[in-house]
Amino acid sequence: MENQASAGKKFGYIVSMIINAVLIYVFNNLLSWNIPYLLPTFTGCLWAIQLSLSVTIFINFIYIFYDTGWFHNLMQVVENIFSWISIYFIYTIFPFEFPADIWTQGIKIALIVILVLIPIGTLVELVQFLRKVSQRS
Asked: Which of 71, 69, 54 has its CA nearest to residue 20?
């Protein structure tokens, strides 16, 4: 049973799945809530956000049944790829209109930083995955 998650970890995975499902609901309803800084072009990046959150839910579901270190590293690579895609579409579509340019520039810079950091984290996870797999051999 070394690949089985502990009860505490299973609970954490379930909580994560619930939070991500709530986030999908929130993102799907943001436009109907008339948030003043959110433009209708938000629908253009909504699919990528939904996909990223759905992948996270699915991976957490898998963790409930199969929970081992190398697998976490590999799945984190997958999650990072989908996260990067969603951030990329948010940046390129940029469905926000703030009253001050400083907010717009700040958010754009933050998105660029995230777009740079995610591949770095992905590379780290990939190296850890390869190291753990080679240690098993």
From this structure: 54
